[in-house]
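[Discussion] Sanity-checking designs against the backbone

I'm trying to build intuition for which residues belong where. Below is a structure token string of 179 positions. I'd appreciate it if someone posts a full sequence so I can compare it with mine line by line.
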């Protein structure tokens, strides 16, 4: 088996990527402090064709060297916007037909392996601050609270890891519905 070269991968240009149809998913970062986490979320959004990333509250915004260090240029390909208030954005997304899913540990949460997104619906995944998580007001407003099953002693994942897990899960389940 031979590793693929960059030429073998035949990547789209940034312009071609921007013009491609995206999956019906936006990511909302609720007061994320780590600029490396922000950059990693951009890279995940690029990898899985996420529609847009919303950077809320104190979440850092491009251009910034710490974001670019992990984004590796994905801030140029992925649509993004800074919004001062997460709760107001969530209300606006709901008004525009998005199903809000807070990624959080909460009472009556839906375990990710049990979550079945509906075909043809638009989703917004809200991921929270590294210490405090998703704001309680946002959790209360969410139609779904998704919890990633964990079996170790820490019961928490880095936000960039959690983003990769939930986006891949969403994509794999919605791709399966299209077959």
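Best answer:
Here's mine. Compare freely.
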């Amino acid at each position: 088996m031979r590793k693929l070269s960059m030429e073998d991968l035949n990547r789209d240009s940034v312009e071609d990527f921007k013009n491609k149809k995206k999956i019906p998913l936006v990511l909302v970062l609720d007061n994320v402090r780590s600029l490396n986490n922000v950059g990693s979320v951009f890279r995940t959004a690029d990898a899985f064709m996420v529609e847009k990333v919303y950077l809320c509250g104190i979440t850092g915004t491009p251009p910034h060297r710490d974001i670019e260090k992990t984004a590796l240029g994905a801030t140029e390909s992925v649509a993004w916007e800074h919004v001062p208030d997460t709760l107001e954005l969530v209300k606006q997304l709901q008004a525009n037909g998005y199903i809000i899913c807070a990624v959080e540990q909460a009472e009556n949460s839906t375990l990710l392996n049990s979550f079945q997104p509906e075909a043809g619906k638009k989703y917004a995944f809200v991921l929270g601050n590294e210490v405090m998580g998703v704001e309680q007001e946002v959790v209360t407003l969410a139609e779904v609270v998704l919890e990633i099953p964990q079996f170790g002693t820490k019961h928490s994942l880095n936000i960039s890891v959690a983003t990769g897990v939930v986006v891949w899960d969403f994509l794999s389940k919605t791709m399966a519905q299209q077959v």
